[in-house]
Amino acid sequence: MNLKDKLNIYERSTAPAAPAPVDRTLYEMGGSISQTENGPLWRFTTVYPIARDREASLRELLPSFLLHTGTKLCDLERLLFFDLETTGLSGGTGTCPFLTGIGFFRDGALHVEQYFMDDYARERAILAHLVSVFREAAALVAYNGKSFDIPLIKSRYRLNRVGGFPVEIPVADLLYPCRRLFKKPYGSCTLKSMEENLLGVLRGDDIPGWEIPDVFFSFQRHGETARLPLVIEHNRMDVYSMFMLVESLGRVFHSVCGKDYRAIEPRLLPRIAHYLYGTDLGSFLEISGLIHDEVRTDRLLFKKYCTALKRSGRIEEALRFWRDDPSIYSLEELAKHCEHRQHDYRRALGHAQAARSLIERRLFSENGEALSADRAVFHGARFARRIARLEARLARGHYAMRNPAGPSRP
Q: What span, in angstroms and rounded, lies between the C-alpha atoms of 159 and 155?
């Protein structure tokens, strides 16, 4: 073998190797290698263009959304949408995020970037790369993020000893406003339910969440990639759906701020009323005036409405509601009003005795609302104390009338 042949052997040995089957599959799925200071990372990028009129509307709605989710005001570009796909669904030290999806608005489009941990050794590099992204955001937007995604990502930063994560960054968790507004009309408050019922989005070949950890383990152990595109798409849609939810919730809260209640879907008004009770009594009373039937049939809303009337000094209106409602609650309120405001103990006693009669028949109201055994015992003890106190007051008053000078001193 001459010298040229020997050199050809070395030349062939240093030629770039063909990509591994797994890498080739990731490329075919739309992935690319992103070179970072901490090493190469697999990244998937999708851009969703947003029409100019929709962008303008979203910017107008955003302050109302931020206000009602307890998040400080910021520009649309400073929101970071965040979602994880993990090796487990219960959290804990052994759970790793193998796919990190982020979304941010730039130049008239929502940009979704997904970082895939093809090897456990890659986790530290992903975390280090995302530090600057997190630090530039004014707030994170997540779905159930306060309970799962955010605690998990914080623990991963600590365990990998990667510093710089802004631990005090505000989180706008969409689950909470969705639960307040849509739990009753929609039943379920999962992100999928919000997509179908509120956004009108039906996912086609979506992978169930409980299958996702197994997809990663199959990839790690056997190089299986058949279901991996479903996970990538699932995470991508989660991020985009959160963006659309901010838009939809912003529209609702914008109408609330502007007191344009007729622009809101009627079946949402009772839920919004419950929400406003804790934040704005004036708006609560105003919106309650539009839903008379719900105020009288929703027992909790009825109580809140009457309490709001009292706090607003509209006691006569509250009295009319109580007199028209033959329930334990209303009879107790009437008894308290007669005792403490009018000092009419005899009438207060009559209301309390009428309530005790309902309790003895295991009824919450004359309209037929049943009272469970344990609640009957609870309310029975309460009214027994009230009746005893009123009877004692009446007895003292009767004695005082017969002895106006009081008892003689020894």
A: 6
Question: How many residues are there in the chain?
Answer: 410
Look at residue 6 and tell me if it is in a domain: no
> Is the four-CA dihedral 332, 338, 339, 344 of positive or negative sign?
negative
Give strand ranges (E) for 242-342: none
Query: Which structural domain range is residue 309 located in?
Result: 260-313
Q: How many CB atoms lie within 10 A of CB 268?
A: 18
Both 195 and 118 in one domain: the answer is yes
The rounded mean pLDDT for the chain is 89
Please report the DSSP string for 54-83 in residue order.
HHHHHHHHHHHHHHHTT-----GGGEEEEE
Per-residue pLDDT tens over the stretch 79-92: 999 999 999 877 67
Q: What gap in Å lies between CA 245 and CA 254, rounded to an integer?
A: 14
| 365 DSSP assignment | B
Spatial separation of the C-alpha atoms in residues 8 and 11, rounded to whole Å: 5
pLDDT beyond 70 at 407: no
- Asked if the structure places residue 8 within a domain, the reply is no
CA atoms in the 13 A half-sphere facing the CB of 52: 0
Question: Does residue 181 share a domain with residue 47?
Answer: yes
Residues 6+ apart with CB under 8 A from 289: none
pLDDT of residue 324: 92
Instruction: Check: CB of residue 203 under 8 Å from CB of residue 271.
Output: no
- DSSP, collapsed to helix, strand or coil, labels residue 187 as coil
Residue pair 174/246 in contact (Cβ under 8 Å)? The answer is yes
Cα(289)–Cα(312) distance, rounded to whole angstroms? Answer: 15
Task: Please give the structure tokens belonging to residue 68.
Answer: 């009602």
Cα 140 from Cα 158, distance rounded (Å): 19
- Res 372 pLDDT > 60: yes
Q: Are residues 165 and 272 in the same domain?
A: no
Judge if 120 and 138 occupy the same domain.
Answer: yes
Q: Supply φ then ψ for residue 396, to 5 degrees.
A: -65, -40
| DSSP secondary structure letter of residue 92 | S
282-287's contacts with Cβ under 8 Å and 24+ in sequence apart are 282/312, 283/256, 283/259, 284/308, 285/309, 285/312, 286/259, 286/261, 287/261
d(CA 106, CA 50) in angstroms, rounded, equals 10
For residues 296 and 351, membership in a common domain is answered with no
**For position 187, what pLDDT does the model report?**
86
Q: Residue with structure tokens 């990667």?
A: 162
- Domain with residue 74: its CATH number is 3.30.420.10
